[in-house]
Design brief:
Radius of gyration: 23 Å
Shape: rod-shaped
Strand order of the largest sheet: 10-17-16-12-13
Order of helices and strands: EEEEEEEEEEEEEEEEE
Oligomer: single chain
């Protein structure tokens, strides 16, 4: 019988590309990975995978004589705050650089809530159901059509990761003019 080892189980952040590495005996002539979801190839020994949720990949190795062996590897996908980047300051002065305060990152399917408050607790910006990495959906440093003065503001962000987990991030942002 042929021998196949799918490798050690892995735990990765949502949005991470994972290198799968099947170790095969010399008599193996064909292999097949399942499920074929988010794999770079299903018939090579070292495909890359970008699983959206935790997945068990099974690799089946076969010889010319029809003998086969299989093994599996579990990729556990998790989500945390490190997948979303928010700067600590921005300069909404219309120069086209750093004019918007918006969430950036990977492994996040959408921003379900993004709010900014001034030091007195007044909400100066809100966006729901926004896309990540989209500057035009962020805050431009204005409230009711008026430029706000330089100050420190507080934000709350709720994001939905690709694997369905929610992430809550709170922090502050410096508006610099």
């Amino acid at each position: 019988l042929p021998k196949v080892d799918a490798g050690a189980d892995q735990k990765v952040l949502s949005g991470t590309v994972v290198q799968l590495q099947a170790q095969l005996s010399a008599d193996v002539t064909s292999i097949l990975w399942k499920p074929n979801i988010n794999l770079s190839c299903i018939d090579c020994s070292n495909p890359t995978a970008k699983p959206i949720q935790s997945t068990i990949y099974i690799v089946k190795a076969t010889t010319d004589f029809g003998c086969s062996d299989s093994d599996q590897v579990r990729i556990v996908v998790f989500c945390d705050q490190s997948q979303v980047f928010l700067p600590n300051s921005f300069t909404p002065n219309g120069d086209g650089v750093n004019d918007y305060f918006y969430p950036q990152g990977s492994g996040v399917s959408k921003i379900t809530l993004f709010q900014v408050y001034n030091r007195w607790g007044q909400k100066v910006f809100e966006n729901t159901q926004a896309s990540i990495n989209t500057a035009s959906q962020g805050w431009d440093g204005r409230y009711n059509g008026q430029d706000l003065s330089p100050d420190t503001f507080v934000y709350i962000l709720e994001a939905l990761c690709d694997n369905g987990e929610k992430v809550l991030i709170k922090g502050d942002i410096n508006l610099i003019r």
